[in-house]
Each structure stands twice: as C-alpha cells, then as structure tokens.
Design brief:
Blueprint: E1 3-8, H1 16-24, E2 29-32, E3 41-45, E4 48-52, E5 65-68, E6 73-75, H2 76-88, E7 98-100, E8 105-107, H3 109-122, H4 134-142, H5 155-176, H6 184-198, H7 206-215, E9 220-227, H8 247-254, E10 261-269, E11 272-274, H9 287-295, E12 308-310, E13 312-313, H10 314-324, E14 328-332, E15 342-351, E16 354-356, H11 363-368, E17 370-377, H12 394-407, E18 411-415, E19 423-425
Parallel strand pairs: 1-9, 1-10, 2-5, 2-9, 5-7, 6-8, 10-14, 13-15, 14-18
Antiparallel strand pairs: 3-4, 11-12, 15-16, 15-17, 18-19
Helix pairs in contact: 3-4
The structure holds inosinic acid.
Inosinic acid binds at residues 12-13, 38-40, 127-130, 132, 134-135, 225-226, 230, 239, 241-242, 275-276.
Length: 430
C-alpha cells in the first residue's frame, strides 16, 4: 500500500499545493485526478512563487513523475501556457516529467465562453464560478460528446467531433447568450498548435502506469483540487464545482482500486475561507474577516477574487473527514492567527432553536445555521520562524490540541508559512 491521497477538507484553497510539493520530495509519482484550471496551487520555493493550475504540484521535484489522469478537464490552451512558463523558469526540462492520459476530457475556449455567458445571465443567482469552463466541459463528458486528449491526435475524427459540437455550442452562443460563434477552421488551427506542443507528454493509459507503479511499491501521491464542500454530490449544491472532489474521486479519476491507498490526508486551514456564492456559517463579515483576509493574503490565485473569511468550523471539518475517510490532517496557515486577542472555533450549529453537531446536507438548512463557538485565548508571537513543534507558543499549542482532540485523528503536519521550511512535522509521511 503506497498510495496517499491529499484532499481539501474545506471549500478549497486550503494549501494542497504546498503540502503536495513538500510531500513530493518523497514521492515517485504525483497524480492530478479531477478538476481543471479552476484550481490554483501556489508553491513558494526559495522565495520564488509558482502558481500551477493543471500541472501537478510535484513538478518542482524533477525526480517525481507528474500525471494528469482521466478525471481532469484539460484546458489545453492554459496547459500550454503553464508548460511554457515552467520551461522558461527552467522547471520543466525533461518531457518525461509530465504524462497526460488519452482519456482526459479536453476543455476548449467554447467551454469558457459558455461558463462565463451562463454566469452573466444568472445575475444575482450566479454560482460565482471561476469562469474557466469547468461545468460545460464536464457536461460534455457526461453527455458523451467530449473531445478526449487522445482525439487530438486523430485529425479526421477530431474534425467530425468538433463540427458536431460547434453546431450546438454556436447555436447557444449566438441565439441564447447573444455572443459571437466559434469558427471551426480557426479552432482546428489553434488545436493543431496546442496538440503539437503537448504530444510529447502523451501517455495513453495512465491508469495502467499507476497500477504498475503501486504494484511495484512505488510511492504515489494523488493531488486533489478544490475542497470537499465543493463536491458535486456532497457539497453545498448548487454552489459547488462540477467534479467530485472527494478521496473516492482519486480512484475513479485515476482508474485504480481502493486497496492500494495507505492514507488520506485532509488539508485544512486553521480558519475557513470560501470563494464564490453559497452558505458559509462561520463567515466573519466584519473587521475579523478583513484581518484574516489581509494577513492570510486571501485572494484567489486563479481569479484574484477576495476570499470570504471566517473561523474554523469543526462541524464541517468532521463531515469532510467522514465523507472522505480522512485518516490524517495537515493544519495550514496557523501563523495567520497570531495577534488575535480571542480565537473562535465552531463546535456546533444552532438551527430552529436546537444545537446540532452533524453537518446538514441541504444547502437551504446550512444557510440557516448559526455557529456555536468555543473561545480560545490568542497568542501574539510570530510563528513564521518556529521550526520545532515544542517552540509553538502555549496558546497556539492549546488551539492545535483542541482541534486534534475534537476531530479524533492525528494532525501530522502544521504549516506556519508558505515556504517548504515553514513546515512542522508531527509524523513522517510514509
Ligand atoms: P467552477 O469550479 O469554476 O465551476 O466554480 C464553482 C465553485 O467552486 C465556485 O464557487 C468557485 O469559486 C469554486 N471553486 C472552483 N475551484 C476552486 C478552487 O480551486 N478553490 C476554491 N474555490 C474554487
């Protein structure tokens, strides 16, 4: 058993990129299995920032092989730009560092156009998507009309598929959303350029590759995107993304079975954030939320949008632990909480005059829940220079211990800054 799944335990932006980067030092393979360029994984190495949207966060470790598996919606234009930036920075020299499944769904410019047009037409009712075309691309997959990565290398079949797709998309774009249609020949020309650049990364059957690696005892990290509460089935529907963001999705998206998974590491911030619309019980729409936002630099790495901020929500975190089967936690951005007089943690919700401790799955109900808090004494000390667990200030330790006791699973990692060295290990990874 040598597979480790890394999942977001909140509404995304928990710091999965940093964790996967740090874990990748010990991994042979790093696999992205769902989502697309809606993700923004920020890595800081030697004070240099790299933001990845599609390339797995293991790419900065040249000895690890990064895989984009079948469950991903692959924005080929964005991927080409990302690869060019990595190459220019000298971070992707060897094409063998990145392998792409032939079964991944190709995301094309019309998916982005449809996503944005739809959001605009929804007005106040909008989901607040990233506008990256994720929903329309997964819709094509589900309706069995998607262009797959392997199709890019069969010109005749691709032309037929796109011709048929554009008939429908252009009808919608022109007549329903009143925007410009897409020209088939110009699109084919663009795709030819993108596929030429990406052909060196083509790996056909990545499921077989991962299977063999696991069988040989290789260390495989599965890198989730977005967070559990944005899951299409178990999140705050309809304010969710269009893929399953849970640990189970790592298996489906990569094409492997569950027996090979050693642990599921859930990533949570020491507080909570959310981008886009939807219920968020512990949101602090006040000076506290503003302070968390500014100190934590809580602005989206994909869209630049300000993230909504609030206190740690243990009801939601325990739900995420349950629906993912999370076995271990990484607690991120603890340093951001320095300087607060009082720190709050939500341990229950109050709804219709009653306290509940199980997360309500109906978004209507969640929207009516009020947080029930426990208060903790804050600490003043800057944590970013701490390198040993025992050097955390007393009140920070009390806070971490309280969270650990409440969730009843081990906290393996505590992060106190974006750098690799700002990571406190409670337990080794493998
Ligand atoms: P979509 O995935 O672009 O369709 O957006 C659907 C919802 O998921 C919106 O609320 C987005 O803000 C949110 N979302 C999508 N990707 C991320 C992410 O990587 N981090 C945080 N929120 C995300």
């Amino acid at each position: 058993m040598s597979g480790i799944i890394v999942v977001g335990a909140q509404w995304g932006d928990e710091g999965k990129g940093k964790v996967v980067d740090v874990f990748s030092a010990q991994a042979d393979y790093v696999v992205r299995y769902q989502g697309g360029a809606n993700a923004g994984h920020t890595l800081v190495v030697d004070n240099k920032k790299t933001v990845l949207h599609l390339v797995p966060s293991g790419i900065l470790h040249t000895e690890a092989t990064c895989i984009i598996a079948a469950g991903v919606v692959l924005d080929v234009e964005t991927l080409c730009q990302e690869i060019n930036a990595l190459k220019e920075a000298g971070l992707l020299q060897n094409p063998k560092q990145l392998l792409i499944s032939d079964s991944a769904t190709v995301l094309l410019p019309y998916h982005r156009m449809l996503d944005q047009a739809r959001e605009q037409s929804l007005g106040q009712e909008k989901i607040g998507t990233t506008g990256k075309g994720i929903g329309p691309a997964y819709e094509d997959r589900a309706s069995r009309k998607a262009v797959l990565f392997g199709d890019l290398f069969n010109k005749e079949a691709l032309k037929l598929k796109l011709d048929s797709a554009l008939k429908e998309k252009n009808f919608l774009l022109e007549n329903y959303y009143k925007t410009k249609p897409i020209n088939l020949n110009s699109l084919l020309k663009q795709i030819a350029e993108w596929s030429e650049q990406l052909s060196v990364y083509r790996s056909k059957d990545t499921s077989l590759l991962i299977h063999k690696a696991l069988k040989a005892g290789k260390k495989v990290l599965f890198e989730g995107a977005q967070g559990s509460l944005l899951d299409i089935f178990h999140g705050t529907y309809p304010f969710v993304t269009s893929s399953s963001t849970l640990a189970g999705s790592a298996l489906v998206g990569s094409g492997i079975g569950p027996g090979t998974i050693q642990k599921v590491v859930g990533i949570t911030k020491a507080y909570t954030t959310r981008v886009g619309s939807g219920p968020f019980p512990t949101e602090c729409d006040d000076a506290i939320g503003e302070k968390i936002c500014q100190v934590g630099n809580e602005f989206g790495s994909t869209t630049g949008r300000r993230r909504r901020c609030g206190w740690m929500d243990l009801v939601a975190l325990k739900y995420a632990i349950r629906i993912n089967g999370i076995t271990n936690l990484a607690l991120m951005k603890l340093d951001v909480l320095s300087g607060f007089e009082e720190i709050k943690v939500c341990t229950a919700y109050e709804i219709d005059g009653q306290n509940i401790t199980e997360y309500p799955v109906s978004p209507g109900e969640l929207g009516r829940c009020k947080p029930v808090y426990e208060s903790f004494k804050g600490w003043k000390e800057d944590l970013t220079q701490v390198r040993m667990l025992k050097d955390l200030p007393r009140y920070a330790q009390e806070y971490v211990n309280f969270v650990g006791n409440q969730v009843a699973i081990p906290i393996d990692v505590i992060s106190i800054g974006p750098g690799r060295d700002q990571t406190l290990w409670v337990k080794p990874l493998f």
